[in-house]
Amino acid sequence: MIWDWEFTGRIIPDILRGLVVTFEATVLGSIVAFALGLVLALLRRSRIRLVSGAVWVFVEFVRSTPLLVQLYFLFNVLPDIGVRFSSLTTGVIGLGVHYACYTSEVYRAGIEGVPRGQWEAATALSLPVHRVWTGVILPQAIPRVLPALGNYTISMFKETPLLLAIGVLDLVGAAQEAGSEAYRYVEPLTLAGICFLLLSYPSSLLVRRLERRVGI
Amino acid sequence: MFENFSHFLSVLLQGVPATVIATLGGIALCIVLSFAAGFGMLSPWRWARLIARVYVEVWRGTSEVVQLFWIFFALPLLVGFELLPLWAGILVLGLNHGAYGGEIVRGAVQAVPKEQHECAVALSFSPVQRMWRVILPQAVVEMIPPFNNLFIQLLKSSALLSLIFVHEITYQGRDVLEPNFTGQIALIYLLMLALYLVLSVLITAVMRVLERRAAAAVGRKPVEPAKVLGRVEGGAI
């Protein structure tokens, strides 16, 4: 018998518990990524060359190296310099910072997409700098970048299983553990795959609809 | 701090061949599957379209780690033979990125102006000639920049193979940590990250050469990097 239904039923609670952890990591990671990404995008526009240059190097470095190694780095180096976080927190920071570097490019494109006239109008009204950003530029830039941010949330959701490498018992971690106890990998890993498919496919359809609505 | 530097470097360098083999193998499989999936989705046969769609959605919709574990742990139990870790790794890298590549191929072929098609029909080219001599040469130019991105992603994903005990760079780095050189952990990891950076710069360099050649062959200027970046970022996933 290839598929054991009784075993499948037994491991479902574990898998669902893992799914909750995966969700937690995705939501918290997205919040970090969206906030930090905006900060990075704004810093990159800084007139101080040193700041914008440093941000550029950081973004390029993070984007062209593997997330797994970055997670290992945080997990091993932070305690070494005396900072102790739980593995989930470390994972959220890792995911958040990694994706912030991608979202910063998205924000940048969004900000650059705001027509020049809007900047000129804001200057003509002699608005203070923070009002230009919060009142004129960002309200126009953010809706345009929402679909791309949605896409990155979905990719982050699919990348959270990497956290099992630093000891977070997420969906795949739970499936892996259930599998290694009984030496039956087919059911738990297939279930984990189905979970991902069931959640990420509808979300990407949703993002596509959002894309059409914002008109990109 | 630097007394063990050469030791670290030599251990990490031992992982480079496995990383390179996995990446090149993955890229080869990825290219084949991308074209199969891309043409499948454009095919006039319903079944081919359906199979290609299902392949793309399933492999893009699930997590790479699950795919890796499934192929390495579950598949051997189903089919009844062992899979070497490196082979399992190449298979997953190729299958996963081939799904993304399928959309690149489809998009590039569809982006070739319709008039080109009509011209080829007017010259009474056969469907194969049309594709091979008119559409593909133009589509390939469009494909190279997004494929460059995809291959760099593939290189970065090869770090996952350390989870199934392939002795590539990440595995070697973890291995050298075992004796625990306190205070030098950051150095080892930075060295590891730098190695990946070097490899990804190499891929980009090769792809830039290809891009210039391909563009010259069809008499076009290469696309500006800035434009490519914007387009690929917007269409991620």
UniProtKB/TrEMBL annotation, chain A:
PROSITE patterns membership: ABC_TM1 (PS50928)
The keyword Cell membrane appears for this protein: yes
One term under GO cellular component: ATP-binding cassette (ABC) transporter complex
A GO MF term: transmembrane transporter activity
Cellular compartment(s): Cell membrane
Membrane-crossing segments per the record: 20-43, 55-75, 189-207
Main localization of the protein described in the UniProt heading: membrane
Domain ABC transmembrane type-1: 19-207
Keywords annotated in UniProt: Amino-acid transport, Cell membrane, Membrane, Transmembrane, Transmembrane helix, Transport
Domain of life the protein comes from: Bacteria
Pfam families xrefs: BPD_transp_1
Biological process annotations from GO: amino acid transport
Record membrane topology: Multi-pass membrane protein
Classification via InterPro entries: AA_ABC_transptr_permease_3TM, ArtM/GltK/GlnP/TcyL/YhdX-like, Ectoine_EhuD, MetI-like, MetI-like_sf
Family to which the UniProt record says this protein belongs: Belongs to the binding-protein-dependent transport system permease family.
Name this polypeptide is given: Polar amino acid transport system permease protein
Species name: Saccharopolyspora phatthalungensis
TrEMBL record, chain B:
Single GO cellular component term: ATP-binding cassette (ABC) transporter complex
SUPFAM superfamilies associated with the record: MetI-like
Subcellular location: Cell membrane
Gene Ontology MF terms in the entry: transmembrane transporter activity
Key words, A-Z: Amino-acid transport, Cell membrane, Membrane, Transmembrane, Transmembrane helix, Transport
UniProt cross-references to InterPro entries, sorted A to Z: AA_ABC_transptr_permease_3TM (IPR010065), ArtM/GltK/GlnP/TcyL/YhdX-like (IPR043429), Ectoine_EhuC (IPR014342), MetI-like (IPR000515), MetI-like_sf (IPR035906)
TM segment ranges: 20-45, 65-88, 186-210
Main location: membrane
Membrane topology value: Multi-pass membrane protein
Limits of the ABC transmembrane type-1 domain: 16-203
Pfam families according to UniProt: BPD_transp_1
Domain of life: Bacteria
Similarity comment: family membership: Belongs to the binding-protein-dependent transport system permease family.
PANTHER family: L-CYSTINE TRANSPORT SYSTEM PERMEASE PROTEIN TCYL, MEMBRANE COMPONENT OF AMINO ACID ABC TRANSPORTER
Protein name listed in UniProt: Polar amino acid transport system permease protein
Species in which this protein is naturally found: Saccharopolyspora phatthalungensis
